[in-house]
Amino acid sequence: MTDANATASRTPFDDGATSEAAPDREELTWELFGQAERELSAQIVASGWMPDLIIAIARGGLIPAGAIGYAIGVKAMGSMNVEFYTGIGETLEEPVILPPLMDASELPGKRVLVVDDVADSGKTLKMVMELLRHQGLDLGGENVQVDARSAVIYRKPRSVFEPDYCWRETDKWINFPWSVLPVITPGSLQG
Description:
single chain; globular; 10 strands
């Protein structure tokens, strides 16, 4: 592989948040994120259903899942790495779970909250929830069932999946505070 090809293959993923492609955007600031997570957490507590474990859908769900865990006092956390978006507005045909896989040995009979930042197409959340609710988890050849619910900050009207808990609905492109700045690369460090 040539140096040019090696550099091209390591081009950082850009979700479009820093481009000017869609000027009409939903702006989630850090302060508003704090409010959103408290209100979303209050929805969960008010429902009377409390999770034993929170699973973040990586990457977008990692920060919201951690914030919800702190807000509702749940320390047991896990994550699933799911690839769907491959570029700005470009997706795989269907989402794919990537390694490393989460250790599910402690999940049988547990209440599991799956957290993501947004249900955009809804395909990622739908796939994960169907896996947990209907197929259960494969624990070395044995499938176990879990009581799973989902939470997102945002839901798009076109989403094929309706999360159990949602802070706000929007059809705009969302600028999240953790992904609005350009990716840091060795080239960007040289001024």
